[in-house]
Amino acid sequence: MSEIVVDGDPLPFVEGQTVAAALVASGRLAWRTTRVGHRPRGVFCGIGVCFDCLVTVDGARGQRACLVPARTGMTVTTREGDDE
Amino acid sequence: MSEPADLVVVGAGPAGMAAAATALAGGVRVVLLDSQAALGGQYWRHPPEHARALVATDDLHHGLRRYRALCQALAAHRTTGRLDLRLGHHAWSVVREDDGFAVHAVDRREAPRETALVLRAPRLLVATGAYDRQLPFPGWDVPGVLTVGGLQALLKGGGVAAGSRVALGGTGPFLLPVAAGLAARGVEVVAVCEAAHPRAWLRHPGPLLRNPGKWAEGAGYAAALLRHRVPVRPRTAIVAAAGGARVTSVRIASLAPDGSPRPGTERRVEVDAVGVGWGFAPQLDLLVPLGCALTDSADGNAVVAVDGGQRTTVPGVYAAGETCGVGGAALAVNEGRLAARSILADLGAGPLPVNGRPAAPRSAVTRQRAFARAMALAHPLPPAWPSWLTDETVVCRCEEVSAGAIRTARAEGAHDHRQVKQLTRAGMGWCQGRMCGPAVHCLTARGRAYEPAERLVATPVTLGALADLDETPPAPPAPPVPPVPPASTADGETDKECP
């Protein structure tokens, strides 16, 4: 099975899944916190509209995990890039 | 594509696919772009072609025969070179130019890398669809609470169920296919909380009787839900969700006719995921800055105004599908065909070689719009929904603005979502009010249709991509096109109309 690397740990994904789908498939529904209240946020709208699911992908901040297709070797960092 | 295009279609859902297929059948050159990796939009959301074997989604779809016919028609036109299909492309702005329109887009097929480009044509069709309309409630920002569309997108696009014990709530027929899809994947759907009462449909018998296809579709979902023992609870709502790192329970209440919870009816139900949706908000981001006039729709949204041929008030700009009023995929397909016929006529192209019956899509559109209006009136936002909110309830998820802060702004004189934004920052964050806008509007300007804020940039774009902008991008290499079996007509119009 293909894998991406999330916060240093390998995460399997099925070809065709987005980063968000791979995270949800592994049971993770939240992966960042808000700036003010430090509330947990993850996938909400699932179609690129709400920006709750932001992650850093291969060094690029502010990426919507629900829109970025997972690719082998991709490096995803969570809990960064919150509301900058 | 070496020759310039006659038409750019933004959005490859049911409306955009149908419009492109019909326009191509009429002999013009078309650029069709969509942000997704596959044709189909949200309604026919599919994994990318290369991954279809790994993620089974066929059984989750309705109307796949039509989807495949449209895919075949488009594939045939790619081989002729008259269709420039650009998937994974996000349009972020459209600018009027002397001789047409410039669609500014970014190619994100290799995301996070992005490449900016401009696509030009004398005619523009905007078929950008809609997204779930949300109403806040205490706990709606706890992880595991998703939009119903989000649950559906994970299921259809990635084969992933977001929970094992799920409650759905809101209003509208869309709750039913999502519940049926989750149940088909082994998810225990503990309740479908529909705020409306089915009796509301009986006030509009005419549109119901004239749209039997809709009833057949609804009956199919009802049978599936019965088979999986999914309880549908009319006149109820999810009025709160609780949990820390993940949702653990919801509170479900029976609703009085005004939508306020009936005292003493609240009960707690354990869940590990929730889906909520209150109809849809049309995606007007490209149309509003162009100056297209809006009009009120029965569901409380402002939508783009179109004439009998799907022309907006800006010459050369056409719209089809949910941007001109939420009405579902069948209506979107017919509006797309109608728009393409208008475009062909306005370009001075000859008549369509096949199925040249202009009356067919137009009469179907009229009939299906009447159904959409009946649907909107039967599934209104419950007037008393703000009674679910506490002062602490987050309304703007991005800027973390509470209901109390918005009520204070209203008391200080704010009377629409724009003024609330200036006073509280609600709607100023990452999503630019797409999630909280309709709710803030309801809290301050009830009785008027919701007009979204003007957003000059429809999707964030990096400055680096803009700096590298190549004004004359080469067409992407065409992937191998599967052999096309003879379609019944060249434009995919396998039926006279889409039922």
Helix content of chain A: under 10%
Unreliable stretches of chain B (pLDDT < 50, length at least 5) are 477-490
Largest sheet of chain B: 5 strands, parallel
The end-to-end distance of chain A, rounded to whole angstroms, is 34 Å
- Strand proportion of chain A: 25-35%
Q: Which strand order spans the largest sheet of chain A, edge to edge or round the barrel?
A: 2-1-7-5-6
SSE pattern of chain A: EEHEEEEE
CATH architecture of chain A: Roll
The CATH class name of chain A reads: Alpha Beta
Mean pLDDT of chain A: 92
- Mean pLDDT score of chain B, rounded? 91
Gross morphology of chain B: globular
Helix content of chain B: 25-40%
pLDDT < 50 stretches of chain A? none
Radius of gyration of chain A, taken over Cα atoms and rounded to an integer in Å: 12 Å
SS element count, helices of chain A: 1
**Quaternary structure type:** heterodimer
Structure class of chain A: mainly beta
What structural category characterises the helix and strand content of chain B?
alpha/beta
Strand proportion of chain B, as a percent range, falls in 15-25%
Radius of gyration of chain B: 22 Å
Keywords (chain A): Oxidoreductase
Organism (chain A): Streptomyces violaceorubidus
Protein name (chain A): (2Fe-2S)-binding protein
